[in-house]
Design brief:
By secondary structure, the protein is mostly beta strands. It has a single domain, classed as Porin. About 10% of the residues lie in helices and about 60% in strands. The strands form 2 sheets. Strands 1-2-3-4-5-8-9-10 form an 8-stranded antiparallel barrel. β4 and β5 form a beta hairpin. The longest helix is centred in the first third of the chain and has 17 residues. The chain is elongated. About 10% of the residues have low confidence.
């Protein structure tokens, strides 16, 4: 478990340092570009997650749209709805994810699609009924469709599908799938 937390912390430091060009705060760390809150449901679980994103300098323009990469850092809680949940009743999720976003129409459309895969630590190890993860360190991959809105398009809403599993590192590896609704606001 300690190694998993250290690995996520190391990736967080590397990711945030790469996620330029947002202005630095006093102390030298870049400021996040957005903050978000999301709620999700799985077959026998609910999740509430909050976090922030940092834009990277990478961006590509095509006639059909603009692709960009951002990093997100998240923390949340999973609650099971199955009566045979693990002894604590709650699981804490901490994650870091690079995500690729595509905005059609040269970036002038308020719509976007997004995909990402990152590392997540789940503690205690997730157990919900017959589902039992075998590792605290898991991958979280997502697909999303969303829309910017409001003054200056500083607000976003996105519908996401996210899968968590250890990628076959160890058995059992049942995975958990969440349908999520995310609200984000640019800072």
């Amino acid at each position: 478990m300690r190694r998993a937390v250290q690995a996520v912390a190391a990736l967080l430091i590397v990711g945030v340092s790469w996620a330029m060009p947002s202005p630095a705060r006093a102390g030298g760390l870049p400021r996040p570009t957005t903050v978000f809150a999301q709620a999700g449901v799985a077959e026998h679980a609910h999740a509430i997650v909050a976090g922030a994103t940092w834009e990277s300098a990478w961006q590509r323009r095509w006639r059909s749209g603009v692709a960009s990469i951002h990093w997100e850092v998240s923390a949340g809680r999973w609650t099971a709805t199955h009566e045979h949940f693990n002894s604590s009743g709650l699981v804490t999720q901490i994650g870091i994810t690079p995500a690729l976003r595509f905005e059609p129409s040269g970036g002038s459309s308020p719509w976007f699609v997004e995909a990402g895969i990152g590392l997540n630590v789940l503690t205690p190890i997730y157990q919900n009924g017959d589902k039992r993860f075998s590792t605290a360190l898991n991958f979280g991959d997502h697909l999303a469709v969303g829309r910017r809105f409001g003054e200056g398009e500083r607000h976003e809403i996105a519908l996401r599908v996210q899968h968590f599993s250890n990628g076959g590192i160890r058995r059992p590896n049942p995975g958990e799938d969440f349908l999520q609704l995310r609200y984000s606001r640019q800072l």
